[in-house]
Design goal:
ARM-like, PP2A_B56, mainly alpha, Serine/threonine protein phosphatase 2A regulatory subunit, 23 helices, two-stranded parallel ribbon, ARM-type_fold, Leucine-rich Repeat Variant, about 475 residues
Length: about 475
């Protein structure tokens, strides 16, 4: 039981949080309780496989696999030291044995191999030490038994990648229940384990055709629970990375279930609080779908616009980056379908008081392909963007943004000078409508305002001034 919380800590939540963080830093390792109540097992070293005759090797191989099923408590750093070292050396020997020898993975060994792997890696993951765990700021709790578990994963991969490996035999042991347990391990806080799991699951997906639909369905379920229930799962980025490869291999035309997964799972995942941890992998999956089927572009962009962040500038920057990735692969015919709602949102982003959001939106005009799409559709896009751009050029607090806006205005003016002038005149005419100040001074109506022609000249002179400034640099 922890010590009583002081009165100051009860009043000040920040104090308690700092205390918890200090405690987490002191204990950076954790482990599930592998072994039963107080059972003491002492291992004895077996003969080396390389020293055994060919007739003895298979039996000795299975004995070593059975020996490695015995588990030890690594939270106690001084217990079973000799046995732990014997097991570590045996695991190393097994990894080398299956990597360098042919004909050693025979049918009779599959049961012992899968049993050894399952005994070591399948476990109930310990609860996080920190209920307020923030993967972006806090250090993860590392698996204390990693010296053994790492070697088991190494052995598992060598087993799956061996030329002797036969999926037709292995499927008796590597079944849906096995895969389900494997997927649950992706919630491990230890990034080293998740990295191994990613490779293992990818190999299983490639070799076991009968498990592919099940794997996709279970990943779908994990993501749905993550979005709508738990809002926490450590292995989202790794699972998305696997999905990126899976999507890349989808046959055309795409099945309805794959399209549904995109719209009902991947797009809503953009609302997650920890989006920054897996956004790169998520955006890659979305773009992979659009490269497979361009007709999905419109519903995807409309879905992103629906979930567009309202209060988180960091997320807005990520959304803008993903939109640019989508526009890089969009077909001109699909662009026409979404240009109006999309550029209305981009116009809002350009007007953002957060300079990183405005800057990221203005960088679209540095993309040659996007520029070509804008130029082809300038008659629709310029009227949407003009008001925001012109207002920012006069009022934005950040000089870098103002300079970028002048460059964008200059580019748009070069695309269609006549439309640019018409919009300038219309914009100034609206600003010249009678106001209270003018009504109070009828003898000098509008004397404090410039004429439309003067405003237009002022606008063009600003652009020319920017051009001269750039040349003088």
């Amino acid at each position: 039981m922890s010590a009583a919380i002081s009165a100051a800590e009860k009043v000040d939540g920040f104090t308690r949080k700092s205390v918890r963080k200090a405690q987490r830093q002191r204990r950076s390792q954790g482990s599930s309780q592998f072994r039963g109540h107080g059972s003491q097992v002492e291992l004895s070293p077996l003969p080396q496989l390389k020293d055994a005759t060919s007739n003895e090797q298979q039996d000795l191989f299975c004995q070593k696999l059975q020996q490695c099923c015995i588990l030890f408590d690594f939270m106690d750093s001084v217990s079973d030291l000799k046995s732990k070292e014997i097991k570590r050396a045996t695991l190393n020997e097994l990894v080398e044995y299956v990597s360098t020898n042919r004909g050693v993975i025979v049918e009779s060994a599959y049961a012992d191999i899968v049993k050894m792997i399952s005994s070591n890696i399948f476990r109930t993951l310990p609860p996080s030490d920190n209920p307020d765990f923030d993967p972006e700021e806090d250090e993860p709790t590392l698996e204390a038994s990693w010296p053994h578990i790492q070697l088991v994963y190494e052995f598992f991969l060598r087993f799956l990648e061996s030329p002797d490996f036969q999926p037709s035999i292995a499927k008796r042991y590597i079944d849906q229940r096995f895969v389900q347990q494997l997927l649950e391990l992706f919630d491990s806080e230890d990034p080293r384990e998740r990295d191994f799991l990613k490779t293992v699951l990818h190999r299983i997906y490639g070799k076991f055709l009968g498990l592919r639909a099940f794997i996709r369905k279970q990943i779908n379920n994990i993501f749905l629970r993550f979005i709508y229930e738990t809002e926490h799962f450590n292995g989202v980025a790794e699972l998305l990375e696997i999905l990126g490869s899976i999507i890349n291999g989808f046959a055309l035309p795409l099945k309805a279930e794959h399209k549904q997964f995109l719209m009902k799972v991947l797009i809503p995942m953009h609302t997650a609080k920890g989006l920054a941890l897996f956004h790169a992998q998520l955006a890659y999956c979305v773009v992979q779908f659009l490269e497979k089927d361009t007709t999905l572009t419109e519903p995807v962009i409309r879905g992103l616009l629906k979930f567009w962040p309202k209060t988180c500038s960091q997320k807005e920057v990520m959304f803008l980056g993903e939109i640019e990735e989508i526009l890089d692969v969009i077909e001109p015919t699909q662009f026409k379908k979404i240009e109006e709602p999309l550029f209305k949102q981009i116009s809002k982003c350009v007007s953002s008081s957060h300079f990183q959001v405005a800057e990221r939106a203005l960088y679209f005009w540095n993309n040659e392909y996007i520029l070509s799409l804008i130029e082809e559709n300038i008659d629709k896009i310029l009227p949407i963007m003009f008001g925001s751009l012109y207002k920012i050029s006069k009022e934005h607090w950040n000089p870098t943004i103002v300079a970028l806006v002048y460059n964008v205005l200059k580019t748009l003016m070069e695309m269609n000078g006549k439309l640019f002038d018409d919009l300038t005149n219309s914009y100034k005419a609206e600003r010249q409508s009678p106001c209270n100040y003018c009504s109070a001074r009828p003898s000098q109506p509008y004397s404090h305002k410039k004429t439309a022609q003067q405003e237009t000249t002022s606008s063009h002179s600003c652009l020319q001034a920017v051009g001269r400034a750039e040349k003088s640099k």
